[in-house]
Amino acid sequence: MHRLYLLIPLCFALLATSASAAVQVTAIFNPPRIAMGDKSQYIVEIKETDTSKLPDPERVTSLPIPQSGGLELTNGRTSTSQQTSIINGAAEYSITQQLIIDAKPPRVGKFTIPSYVFQYKGETYRVPAATLETVERPADAGPTTDELIFLKTDTPEQLYVGQTTPIQLKLYISENIRLSSLNSFDRSADGFTISELPDSQESTEIVKGRRYRVLTWPLTITPIQTGEQDLSFQFTVSANVPGQNNRRDPFGRRGLGGSLFDDLFGQTERFTVYTEPTKVDVLSLPNDGKPDSFTGAIGDFSMKVYTDRDETQTGEPIMLSVEITGNGNFDRINGPIIPQIDEWRTYAPESQFQPHSAESTLRGTKRFDYVMIPNHDGNIQIPSIAFAYFDAKNKRYTELSSPAIPIKVTPSSKQAAPPTVSNLPTNTQTITTAPPLQKELSMEDALLTLDYRPTPSKHSNSKALKDPSIWIINLSLAVILTISSLWLRHKRRLKEDSAYADQQAAKHELRAITNSAQHAKDAESFYAQAQSAIRLAITCRTHKNHRTANINELESALEKAKVAEETISQTRELFQTADAQRFAGNTAPSDLSSAKSQLERILKAI
Length: 606
Fold this sequence. Notes:
Elements: E1 3-7, E2 12-13, E3 22-30, E4 33-35, E5 40-50, E6 57-58, E7 62-66, E8 72-87, E9 90-104, E10 109-113, E11 116-120, E12 123-127, E13 130-135, H1 145-148, E14 149-153, E15 158-160, E16 165-174, E17 178-188, E18 192-194, E19 201-207, E20 210-223, E21 227-241, H2 244-248, H3 260-265, E22 267-274, E23 278-283, E24 294-307, E25 311-313, E26 318-328, E27 344-346, E28 350-357, E29 360-374, E30 378-382, E31 386-391, E32 396-401, E33 405-410, H4 443-448, H5 462-465, H6 468-496, H7 498-518, H8 523-542, H9 551-560, H10 565-583, H11 593-605
Parallel strand pairs: 4-13, 15-23, 24-31, 25-33
Antiparallel strand pairs: 1-7, 2-6, 3-5, 5-9, 8-9, 10-13, 11-12, 14-16, 16-20, 17-21, 18-20, 19-20, 21-22, 21-23, 24-26, 26-29, 27-29, 28-29, 30-33, 31-32
C-alpha cells in the first residue's frame, strides 16, 4: 500500500518516561458516517497519564499515515489539553493531544486507514485502524459546509522570479451563516514574499444561485525562487451554522447532544477553510538581450529626467531628478547609475515613492534625486542616463535612455582665501588676520581633533617622562581614541551609505547562515541554506544585492568578478543538486559531508 507522509508541524506534549506513566493511542473518524460531498475528520488522539508530575513535551513533525482507496487527507492541525485529577487523595496528571485532519472521500463506500506504528521518545506506539463510511446523499439534503463557507484566490499559473503581482483572497459566507470571528490566518508560500494582510473589503456575490457575503483582501506576491512553488492560504473561523447537526447525519437523525434549539438557531463551530493547493511555475529571467542597465525592474515603465536649473558655478551643486512611472515592482527598483566622468562629482541618490492609489503599491512614481557638483567651469553636460526593465507580458527587455543635459558652469564667485604671511611681498607691512573659524564638531571630529589652544609652558620633569607607566597610559589612550574614531566612522557610514550598510548586513547574515548550513542535519535544510549563503557571498563580493538571484544571474556576477571557472562550475553543480532535491523529489545522500566541504570551498573562493 502506498504510504503518504503527512509533513505538518506538530507539537505533541507527552509525559516523561517513568514507571507510573501510561500512554493510550486511539484513532477515529468523526463522524464515522457521512453523505457524499461532506467531510469527516480523521482524529489521532494520544493520552498520557502519570501519577508523579506533568509530562515534558516532545516535538513530532511527521506521521506515516497509509493512504486507503484515494481518501483525501488535508489541512492537518493539532489540539492540546491537560487535566489533573485527585481521587481519594491520589493525584493523576494527564495530557491529551489530538491530530485532526480533514478527510474527503472520492466516492460512495467504506474507507479504512489501517493500523500503523510511529516512534516517539524512543518507543514504538501503534495507531489503531479507523473506518469511514460514505453513503449516497439524500435528494432533500441541504448544502454541505464547503458550499456554505469557502475560500478562493486568483493565483496566476506562471510568473517570473522577482515579478510582483496583485492577487485577491476572497472568503465566501452564505447569507444564512453568521460569522462570529476570524481566529487565525496562515499561508504555505516558502517561495514567495507576500504583503501583510490588510483590512478586508466587503461585498455580495451570487454563486450558483446562492447569495454570499464576500470578504476580500488584496495582496501582492513576489516569487523569490525558480521552479514550481506551492502557494495556498487558510483561515480558521468561528461561525453559526443553522441545522448543522442534522446535515452531518445522512439520515436526518439529530447528533449526540443535539436539540431542537440547535435545529432552529444553529450552533457556533470552528472551521478551517483553505484555498485549493496551487503550484505556480516561476521562470528565470532570460539572459538574451538583457541590458547592462537592468537591475531587476519588472513591469511597464516610463522615465523622466530633469535638473532644478541649467546653470551653476564651480563647486556649487545642482539637483538631478530621475522619475520612474508605471506599473510594477517598485520596491525592487534602484536608482539608475550615473556614468562617472571627470566633469562631475556625484553622490548616491535619495528616493521617494508616490503610489497612484492607496489600495495598491504597484502603480505610482518613484523619484531619485542626485546631488551633482561640477569640478570646473565651462559648457559641460550631464551624461545620458539609462534605465531598463523586463516586460513580462511581451517577454522582452526594454531600455529607456535620456539625452545628455547641457549645463553652463561659471567660475565661482566666492572670494579666495586671504594671503598668509609667507606669500606676502617683503615690503608689505599689513598682515590680514582671518576671523577665527567656528564649527560645531561631531563626536567623531572631536575625537580626531587635537586641542590647539595654547597653554602656559611648564617646566617638564625629565624623570617623569622616563617613567614607563606614563608611556603605557598614553599608548592606551591613543589606542582607545583610534578604536573609538573607527567605530564612530563605521556607525556614521552605516547611517549615510546605504550600499555599505547593505554590505555589512550581508556579511552578518552570511556568517549566521553558513554556520546553520554546516550544522544542518537533513538535505532539504542544508541545500536551502547553502543557496542563500552563496547568494550572500556574491552580494558581499560584488557590492550588489543578489539575495534573490537565480543561478544564471549568479554565474554572470561571478564571471564579471573574475572568479575562477572551477568555482563557477561547482556553484552550478550545487544549485542543480539543490533544485533536483527540492523540486524533482530526488533524495540526496544522507551523508552531507562532501556537500558541506564543497560549499566551504565555494565560499572561500568567492
